[in-house]
Amino acid sequence: GDEYFGINPEIEYNGSRYTTFYASFPFSFASSGMKAYYISLVENGKAVYSEVADGKVPASMPVFIQSSATGAVNNKLDIADNSAKMPTDNKLGGVYFHNTSKSHKNLTAYDSETMRVLGITSSGKLGFVKADIDYLPANKAYLNVPAGTPDEVELMSQTEYDAYLAEINRKVEVAV
Predict the structure, then answer these.
(1) How far is CA 100 from each of CA 10, 97, 107, 137, rounded to the nearest angstrom?
(2) Which of 136, 131, 113 shows the shortest CA–CA distance to 121?
(3) N or C: more exposed end of the chain, with fewer CB within 10 A?
(4) Cα atoms in the 13 Å half-sphere on the side-chain side of 138
(5) Phi, psi of 174 (to 5 degrees)
(6) Three-state DSSP string of the chain
(7) Residue ranges of the chain with pLDDT lower than 50?
(8) Paired residues of 92 in beta bridges
């Protein structure tokens, strides 16, 4: 019957499921309860996320996806072409291949100094964390970070980040 591409969100946090995804084709969501996000800012040990407009992800855009369901059969992507535009401030990178064949080896080495992967931080929050891996998996996104970035980068909306900065500024003013 229907022809869809399914994904399997592997991280559970706060009643939702999450995964990263990177593909050469554009997509939107065929299943309800799904949203795509990208990282627009990495600063002060925080990663600010933005929702992808209208749930339409352009080709070759690394994202992280939130879902209310488990299993690929419940998380379908419609891979029909769309006219979505790539945001210019996306800090995520992506990997297409993880091929270990001798005749066509194609791997992306994980650099713990400049890359973080989606996970749960030690404080129990969703974020991008340092991983213990040699190579990045296929069709996954990762966060590009400058060397010296903390091992764990907590996710925040722009509103949460603005409140976080306001609190820091308030503490500085009180201290002076």
Answers:
(1) 23, 9, 7, 11
(2) 131
(3) N
(4) 8
(5) -65, -40
(6) CCCCEECCCCEEECCEEEEEECCCCCEEECCCCCEEEEEEEEECCEEEEEECHHHCECCCCCEEEEECCCCHHHCEEECCCCCCCCCCCCCEEEECCCECCCCCCECCECCCCCEEEEEECCCCCEEEECCCCCECCCCEEEEECCCCCCCEEEEECHHHHHHHHHHHHHHHHHHC
(7) 1
(8) 143
On the CB side of 126, CA atoms within 13 Å amount to 19
The answer to whether 64 touches 118, Cβ cutoff 8 Å, is: yes
Is 26:78 a contact under the CB 8 Å cutoff?
Answer: no
Q: Using one digit for the tens of pLDDT, what is the confidence trace for 18-44?
A: 999 999 999 999 999 999 999 999 999
Q: What is the pLDDT of residue 98?
A: 74
What CA–CA distance (Å, rounded) separates 32 from 58? Answer: 19
What's the N-to-C CA distance of the chain in angstroms? 67
Question: Which tokens belong to 21?
Answer: 């995804």
Sign of the torsion formed by the C-alpha atoms of 109, 114, 120 and 124 = positive
What pLDDT is attached to residue 1?
47
CA distance 119 to 131: 9
pTM: 0.90
User: What pLDDT is attached to residue 170?
Assistant: 83
Query: What is the per-residue pLDDT for 176?
Result: 64
